[in-house]
Each structure stands twice: as structure tokens, then as C-alpha cells.
Design a protein that fits this description.
The chain is mostly beta strands. It is built from no helices and 17 strands. The strands form three sheets. It has an eleven-stranded antiparallel β-sheet, with no helix packed on it. The chain has a four-stranded antiparallel β-sheet with strand order 3-4-7-8, with no helix packed on it. Strands 11-12 form a two-stranded antiparallel sheet.
Length: 259
């Protein structure tokens, strides 16, 4: 699921919304009708494991192992009675997951010659559960929670994946929740909160321990091609070592033309 922030691409990234990231993927889906109004969707995919990275001095390099990550999801949707402005079913629930690995090549320079000092293969693993409920025509609530390790490339773990010379996987968990309110068919607001937290011991004394975001917005879809929006967010970030915490407000406006 994706919360309804104005910046929908990075919506609550590093604040509990893991998995909302673009990558090469081959996906297959199968639908099955459950009763008169229910639908079960089974999704399986193979995807690009990690974004390739080479440091300027070639000391730290990240790439895939030639094997894609495996992703899956199981979703149940129940349609409700009557017309609704909220853009999801009367009830939706799902579980999903990812597993895979990638390679990190570490080098050193000895006498002007680059020497490989080790190859690490971090293991990627993550699981999530989500739910959405529609409350009449105008209101709805949706939420999601995840847990896993080495999920920085999936916008989890506060964008932290591994730590130390052996690239030990950073374990993390997070969640988010939002309420949707449709003032009219084309004017709506979202109010929500999300947070991401890493295991303290996995950060080895330095890193981002916790990140949380509270948000509220209003969007006016004037017509099919023109949309205006305004959003306020408050972020609260905790670091290791202690004493470097950071908090602040952000205000964002949006003008969108669709064609």
C-alpha cells in the first residue's frame, strides 16, 4: 500500500513504508473470485536485487549476484455497497514478502595496486501485512507494518542496509497509518503517521536509530488535467551516538498537470 502524500513516489520512505521503490521486475498475477463481492489476488515476481554502486576509489562496490530477488503478495479485496469516493474497497487485507541477496566487493590499495580484500553476500529478507477499511462514502483508514533485514534498497531500515567490514545485515521494522477524508468528490485530505526503527546492536554504535513522520494534506483535483495540493509534515529523527537528534517541519505545495 502507499499512503496518500503529495510526493507519492517517496511517500513515507524511511518512515515505515518499505517496498515503494522502482526496480526492474517481471511479475505474474492470478485473480480468483471469492463469493459475490470478494477477490483474491496472488502475485509473484522476480526483481533487480540492488542498485549497482562503485565507489570512486573502488574500495567499496555493490552489485547483484546474477540471481534476482523473489517477491510475493497475497491480497483479499471485498467490494462494498453503493458509490464511494475513497479509492479502495470496503475491506482489503494482504501479506507480502521479499527474499534474496547481493554482493559487496571490498578492495584496498597496496603499493599502488588494487587488491581484493573480501566478498560479502548480505541476505535480504522482509515481510509485511496491510489492511484498509472504508467507512461510508467519505472516510477510510489504511495501515501497513513490516519487518526484515538489509532493506535499505527497498526504502526500509531508514535507508540503511548493512554495517561493518563484513556487511552485517541491519534489522529493522516499521509501520504507518493514515485516515482519508473526502470533503467532496474532488477535494480530499490525508492525515497520518509512520515510523521506522533499526536494531540498536546492528548499528554498531553509529547510525540512524529511529525516524518518524507525521503529515496532513489537502488536495484539490480541479479536473482531469489540473491538481493542486498542500502538505505539512513533521519529522523526528534519533541518532547513535545519542545527542544528535533532529526535528523539524516541512511544507510542500504541488501543482500537477496531467495529459
Amino acid at each position: 500500500r502507499i499512503p496518500g502524500l503529495i510526493d507519492g513516489f517517496f511517500a513515507l520512505a524511511a518512515s515505515g513504508c518499505a517496498g515503494n521503490s522502482s526496480r526492474g521486475q517481471l511479475r505474474a498475477e492470478r485473480y480468483a473470485k471469492i463469493g459475490e463481492k470478494g477477490k483474491l489476488t496472488v502475485t509473484a515476481a522476480v526483481s533487480q536485487p540492488v542498485s549497482t554502486y562503485f565507489s570512486s576509489d573502488l574500495r567499496n562496490n555493490t552489485t547483484n549476484r546474477g540471481v534476482p530477488n523473489l517477491e510475493w503478495a497475497l491480497t483479499y479485496t471485498l467490494d462494498g455497497e453503493g458509490e464511494s469516493w475513497v479509492p479502495w474497497g470496503a475491506f482489503e487485507a494482504g501479506v507480502s514478502g521479499v527474499m534474496g541477496s547481493y554482493r559487496v566487493f571490498r578492495n584496498d590499495t597496496l603499493g599502488g595496486v588494487i587488491v581484493n580484500t573480501g566478498i560479502n553476500t548480505p541476505k535480504v529478507r522482509g515481510y509485511a501485512a496491510d489492511v484498509a477499511v472504508r467507512l461510508g462514502k467519505r472516510f477510510g483508514i489504511q495501515a501497513e507494518a513490516y519487518t526484515g533485514q538489509a532493506l535499505g534498497n527497498y526504502l526500509g531500515g531508514i535507508l540503511q542496509t548493512t554495517k561493518g567490514p563484513k556487511d552485517k545485515e541491519i534489522r529493522s521494522s516499521g509501520w504507518w497509518m493514515e485516515a482519508a477524508c473526502y470533503w467532496s468528490a474532488n477535494v480530499h485530505s490525508r492525515f497520518g503517521y509512520g515510523q521506522d526503527a533499526c536494531r540498536r546492536e546492528d548499528l554498531m554504535g553509529a547510525g540512524i536509530l529511529r525516524n518518524a513522520t507525521t503529515f496532513a494534506n489537502v488536495t484539490w483535483e480541479a479536473n482531469r488535467w489540473f491538481t493542486l495540493g498542500f502538505e505539512a509534515t513533521h519529522k523526528d529523527t534519533r541518532y547513535l551516538p545519542a545527542g544528535r537528534d533532529n526535528r523539524g517541519m516541512t511544507f510542500m505545495g504541488m501543482v500537477q498537470f496531467s495529459f
